[in-house]
Write the structure tokens for this entry.
Amino acid sequence: MHLSHFAAPADNQPGGQSHFCPNCGHSLSASDTFCPNCGYQLDGSQAAPVQPTTPTPTTNQTTTKPSLRERLRGGKNQSPASKKNRRKWTSIGVVVLLLIIFFVWGFHHYSRQVTLDRAITDIQKGQNMTNDFTSSSPDLKITKSSLLPINRYYSAHAGDLSSLKDQLAASGRSDNGNFSFRTNGRHMLFFPKYQIIVSPVYPTVTTNHTGNKITLDNKQIATATSDNYSKRLSALAPGQYHLKASGKIGKHNLVNSGDYHITSSKSYDLDLTTISANLNTVPGSDIYLNGKKIGTVDNSGTYKLKDEPWSSDMSVSAHYTSSAGKAVSNAVQLQKNDDGNNIDLKFPNLISNSDADDFYSNLFETVQAVANGNDDETDDNGDDMSDFFSEGSTGSFYNQLQKMASGYYDDDDIYGTEMTTSIAAIKPGPNGTSVVTFDVEYDFELEDTHHIQTLRYTANMKDTSHDNSANLSYEITSVSGSTTIKDTHRDKDDD
């Protein structure tokens, strides 16, 4: 018989038949309280040790890294407090950015130069001026109507407006003291408030007959109570105003009216009277009174102004138009004591008759020298022929004269040539030029006779008296083609 050995189950209770340690399996005696091998307490008060277990990895498990957005945001599972803080700091950042934009815009928009540029544009256009101006005196209330005269003047005088801008930008004050430009408070607590401060003027008007009615910008402001009446006007902004006095003198209804640039507290004469004067200028010129054409000068060169209602802003000028363009004389302000006088209306830089006569006489003296074989092309003053022309020796008329004079010299039938000049007319040209019509008489000495021809030319000339590079006070800029006005022969026996 085959015997199988069976191990009896461990009994960890004392007093048993056989004992084994329940922890390590070592044989124990009945009296052992602790295992002599591992020290296990055999009375049952110590729990069995827990063996560590190794987790079984899951097949095909993938480890995913958090995305960039999740890392920046702190992962999807942020606490409510973290989200609240993030929103708070985002809001603060937006507010700071808006404040920066606001202050950058404000300090630019309300800066001194930008404000002045805006104010000058408003003056020219007549808009938003009540925002641009303030008054230095409570006498002058800043309203759209009270500032209208400023716009009225400067919108018609762009050059003066530009000068005003330059003065305010440079010194903060206009040359006449009427305007200053400086801070006057603040915009929105933070930005400087620049304004043009206007100083009012207090003009006086006078007139010479009881009952004369005085108006300012077509609004009646007074009626004269004496023949020597004056009235001081209330505060006005410096600018352009229309003053008028009207009344009946004898059987005549008279008016003294005009536009005035009032910039000071001076007196303005609105007497009712008439004026007559002789206006002397270039024949054919149109006469303008305060910008309105009233007549044309006759061939004598005189226009008779007769019984014209006088005003203290009475200005006359002459306008002359030709194929060269339009010329305007200097304006003359007529005074009451000019009544019955001669008034000259002169065109600027217009050559005089005597200067023109000398100029062309000297020019053709040089031409005559070439025609008679003289190598020296100068006049008695030492001026060369080319000095008479703005283009010098490259000018077309200079070369025509050279060619003509050389041809006379080369002509064997001509024994000698004499040239005599005279001035036919002088007219004003545009931009201070002169249009001179002159005649040249050519006397050709032939074998038995003199052949005499007179040719007429018209030349445009300019004043070069202020040009240091020019040798003469005037120069020819162009010449039109010649016209024959005389062609005769004279026997030498008649000399």
